[in-house]
Amino acid sequence: MFRASARSALRAVRHRPLLSLIAALLAFLPMVTMAGRPAMAIPMNEVVLQALDKITARVSRITVPVGGTVTFGSLQITAKACDKHPPEETPESAAFLQVVEVKPGEAPVGRFSGWMFASSPALSAMEHPVYDLWVLDCINAESAPSGNSQ
């Protein structure tokens, strides 16, 4: 009788770590499934770019409104979208850009169309012999004051 109760107690002790592990996994399961779900990117209304003219070594910071076009040298840069990860995720800004080179007397030539990522500029880079262009950030422009301050 003593041996039977000792055996059952020994089995309970052996299985306790396994039961503890199962309980811990079940307790953390909701957190794992919530963390595994990607959060939606936050759409922004301006793209902050950095551009380099390789001939003059001029580095410029350019802000392009989403849906708008700016000119840098012979490039016309159009921002179609700009998304930023929420603060609880790894920092990342991505912009969908279309870049067209316009030279006098020549037809416009498309040089780039696609997503550029701030954290990995070489992942989707614009290939151009004179200009380099990369995304720094996506921002929401502050609205201008209305002038009706009292």
Number of strands: 8
End-to-end Cα distance: 92 Å
Helix content: 10-25%
Question: Helix- and strand-based class?
Answer: alpha+beta
Strand content: 35-45%
Uncertain residue segments:
29-35, 143-150
Cα radius of gyration in angstroms: 28 Å
Helix count, DSSP H or I runs of 4 or more residues: 1
Largest sheet: 5 strands, antiparallel
Shape descriptor reads globular
- Overall pLDDT: 80
**Count of discrete structural domains:** 2
What letter string, H or E per element, gives the SSE order? HEEEEEEEE
How would you describe this protein?
- By secondary structure, the chain is an alpha+beta fold.
- The protein has one helix and eight strands; from the N terminus they run αββββββββ.
- Strands 1, 4, 5, 6 and 7 form a five-stranded antiparallel β-sheet that branches. Strands 3-2-8 form a three-stranded antiparallel β-sheet, with no helix packed on it.
